[in-house]
Amino acid sequence: MGEIVLAAKIAHVPSIMISEREGPLKGKRAAAIAALREIGRRARERGADTFLVFDTHWISNFGCHMNANARHRGVYTSHEAPHMIQNMAYDYPGDPELGDAIAAEAAKDGLQVLAHKVETLPLEYGTIVPMHYMNERGWARVLSVAAPIFATVEENRKFGAACARAIAASKRKVAVLASGSMSHKLVSNEQVGDGQWEQVGSEFNRQMDLRVLDLWKERRYAEFVRMLPEYSTKCNGEALMADTHMMFGLLGWDGYKGETELLCPYFPSSGSGQIIAEHHL
User: Fold this and answer.
1) Cα 189 to chain center, whole Å?
2) pLDDT for 197
3) What pairing do the DSSP bridges indicate for beta strands 277-279 and 260-262?
4) What integer pLDDT is reported at residue 186 of this predicted model?
5) In whole angstroms, how far apart are CA 225 and each of 42, 87, 136, 155, 180?
6) Where is each Extradiol ring-cleavage dioxygenase class III enzyme subunit B domain found (predicted)?
7) Over the chain, what is the mean pLDDT?
């Protein structure tokens, strides 16, 4: 029998990597870097052999798509922010077997899920950035899932639940990552500058993010999932928070009762709200 050994909501913003360079942001994301590394350490300690990443920076239109290549190898430059992430080499084993199993399980719920084995299909930085800190030298497989922006919350919930069933029926020990922001109202182009890293796009969004963290810490998940559809849209969710829908579907939705442990303080980045937290099983 397979097992989910870790489930976490994580950040992948470029400011994390930029903070390791000389400049005004240097050192300011040390807590986030330490948290990402801690997630990787815990996954490895618990025997994880695959990272399943719900990646909100890989946006798809229709259907649900997984990068199920047997090997992920390339040199990545962000098309969105080439001045922030460029020439970043990556090399990780993939998990086509688990990809196929998830697709088959999801089909039982009427979901259209494709597990792609296409060598020219690259990873996106919602997967590459966390793997840089968690999966050094590629000790674990990587299976990346796109965020379908025209899927309903219910479809994403069902997909997460199908992932849980497929993992349970497999021989894998899986660390699952919801890779994306909380609120995601980015600053306008004319506001871009050194101060952009330290603000959330609106006070409403910041307050809603903090409220969500309170609900998580108090284990009031049934209330959280009831507000999740509106939170996803009214707070400008990155890819409409598809990663969070999938993660809570995997955890059991309103039936989830575990502890949420915040591994770094809530922080802003270019208007978005960010957190790294483990949802204990």
Assistant:
1) 25
2) 66
3) antiparallel
4) 83
5) 27, 39, 34, 14, 17
6) 7-276
7) 95
Q: pLDDT by residue (tens digit) across 16-27?
A: 988 888 988 888
pLDDT digits over 7-60, tens only? 999 999 988 988 888 988 888 899 999 999 999 999 999 999 999 999 999 999
